[in-house]
């Protein structure tokens, strides 16, 4: 079941990348943030929504408060917010946002780059606080990417796309290094077994809660999968799956009007009693109480 199966009041609206703003087929845009010119005019910035692309905001001022999946983050000058596709988020007053914003669909990046830069590491925090040296590197890399982005005259389109790809990769590698925070975590980003499992869970969590089924589908033994997921996250594959299911259930309970039973169905629990039992076990409260507390 997807957002499209629900009436407007029973779903979280997802906005696609604005293809009319893409450049030569490259799904990215970089430039200054300006509250008077939202980066996407048809998105209600101060309402809860999802996007199907990445947003990286590098702030020149602040503080700015921004909600991402039930956590309010306060970002100030020299800090970054990295919002990944599918995350539920909400802007505060748009006029307070000042700095540089990168929006991108990384479909034109090689798979190896996507993995090495951790583009879909939802377990990493959105708010990043670089030190002075890291910030200088990120600003220089961002400025270079923006120069290449706006320079559409000096190179033929194919070569311009290649230069953009390399410039974006350089910026994302710096960003990933900051997000990872340690050499141990950087090594984890390269664990192909875990990344394949993570991608499969993100795609199928609403229908598949079985570790063995994921292992079979990916061609791994259960033991191999357990070892890879534990090394990458410190938790079991079952714990990783359950955490993703609970997050989606919380999103639907908090931000839609779906009845509790239909929320359960949407995350793979046809029986409402089983869903309530599962949710209380992992969230420490019932679905009804969770919804009531937030409203």
From TrEMBL:
SUPFAM superfamilies: Homeodomain-like, Regulatory protein AraC
Keywords tagged on the record: DNA-binding, Transcription, Transcription regulation
PROSITE patterns, A to Z: HTH_ARAC_FAMILY_2
Domain HTH araC/xylS-type: 195-293
One Pfam family recorded for the sequence: AraC_binding
Stored InterPro entries: AraC-bd, Homeodomain-like_sf, HTH-like, HTH_AraC
UniProt entry tagged with the keyword Transcription regulation: yes
PANTHER family: ARAC-FAMILY TRANSCRIPTIONAL REGULATOR (PTHR43280), TRANSCRIPTIONAL REGULATORY PROTEIN (PTHR43280:SF32)
Full protein name: AraC family transcriptional regulator
Organism placement in taxonomy: Bacteria, Bacillati, Actinomycetota, Actinomycetes, Kitasatosporales
